[in-house]
Write a structure and sequence with these properties.
Elements lengths: L12 E5 L1 H4 L8 H16 L4 E5 L2 H5 L12 H25 L3 E7 L1 H5 L1 H16 L2 E7 L13 H11 L4 E6 L20 E3 L3 H6 L12 H12 L5 E5 L5 H7 L5 E4 L7 H9 L2 E7 L1 H8 L5 E2 L3 E5 L7 E5 L5 E6 L4 H9 L7 E3 L4 E3 L2
């Protein structure tokens, strides 16, 4: 494992800052945190690395104006808080970046935008153009209008998607801890900071059980998931302390900072990245051991004869997750046979030779 290393000059960086690092106890924006974040992002641009900011905090920023202390649990409540808070959040960011001679622009995304290939590519071109024009993109999920079915759910995973939209050289997840620990440091005295891990290391599964804070929607699990998503596009991830105003500078230089998550040695193609992480899964297919080996080791397509169970309703062109007999995710792909057609063929005993997912549309994640 390579571990911490310098980021190539000119390579884009994606920085995500969570709600707990931007707001005060009981909600409301922490002006010092906003100023610190804007300063770090500006320094990154000045050092020659165009930087995207994925910022949480819209919901939390709206709580005081609504007389609330806790994050709403219902969707309409979240939408109202986001609608009130988003403008306040951007106003503060705009003011801080303007002081530093930078121009910031708001980018609001939802899962349906990323699920549509044309809109996905349009979002990538828009972000690339902003970076080329020297504009700091401030990205958030569009919480004001999004419904549960279209939610990405957290800004950690959104940041991972943005990192491969812009071809980032680093994904930096800034949070309220110095990094990932071997155990919960609040409960275990000898918990150790994990300086560097591979995205496949089992220790990440062990530490991913942490919950989220009172004003956030993420947690350790979403950061691990985001790091693994970024890893498949060849992007390393650092999870570090948002309160450290030199965190970005240190990370870019290659010095040890937080927890480094080593990426996959060879990134997926842009289309396969979109299938893996931009396209929502509409169903699940369980495969036998022979089919699992054919896909994982042999680079083969998924044939209908290797499927033992189909869950969900999906049509040609939809994405499905492929799991083994133990329920472990091993692949994801775009089907060329819908669930109805598969079931009819199975009922008539005519699945021989039927290709459900062609290898060109299949992403092996095991």
């Amino acid at each position: 494992m390579t571990g911490h290393r310098p980021i190539t000059l000119g390579s884009p960086i994606v920085v995500k800052v969570g709600s707990s690092s931007l707001t005060m106890a009981g909600g409301g924006i922490d002006d010092q945190a906003i100023a610190r974040t804007a300063g770090m992002i500006t320094d990154s641009w000045t050092a020659g690395n165009p930087t995207v900011l994925v910022s949480s905090g819209a919901v939390a920023a709206g709580l005081p104006a609504l007389g609330l202390r806790d994050r709403p649990r219902d969707l309409p409540g979240l939408q109202v808080a986001a609608s009130v808070g988003q403008g306040r959040l951007m106003e503060r960011y705009t003011a801080e970046f303007t002081k530093r001679g930078m121009v910031a622009g708001q980018v609001l995304l939802t899962k349906d935008i990323l699920a549509n290939r044309d809109q996905y590519l349009h979002a990538r071109r828009a972000l690339e153009r902003m970076l080329g024009e020297g504009v700091v993109p401030i990205v958030n999920e569009n919480d004001t209008v999004v419904v549960d079915e279209l939610r990405l759910g957290d800004n950690d995973r959104l940041a991972a998607i943005v990192s491969h939209l812009v071809g980032a050289g680093l994904l930096l997840l800034l949070t309220d801890t110095p990094g990932l620990y071997s155990a919960d440091p609040r409960l275990t005295e000898d918990a150790e900071l994990l300086a560097a891990v591979r995205h496949t290391d089992e220790v990440l599964d062990a530490v991913a059980g942490g919950g989220s804070g009172p004003v956030g929607s993420g947690g350790v699990a979403t950061k691990v998931s985001a790091a693994r998503m970024a890893a498949w596009s060849g992007v390393p991830t650092i999870i570090a302390d948002a309160a450290n105003d030199s965190a970005i500078r240190t990370a870019i230089s290659g010095e040890s900072e937080g927890t480094w998550v080593e990426p996959h040695p060879s990134g997926l193609t842009a289309r396969k990245l979109w299938i893996a992480f931009g396209l929502p899964a509409e169903g699940t297919v369980t495969v036998d051991s022979g089919a699992a080996r054919a896909m994982s080791a042999g680079g083969g397509s998924l044939l209908a004869v290797g499927i033992s169970r189909v869950e969900g309703e999906f049509a040609e062109g939809d994405a499905v997750e492929v799991v083994d007999q133990s329920g472990v995710l091993i692949a994801k792909g775009q089907v060329q046979v819908g669930s109805g057609e598969y079931r009819r063929a199975s009922d008539h005993g005519s699945v021989s030779g039927l290709v459900v997912i062609h290898r060109d549309q299949l992403v092996v994640l095991a």
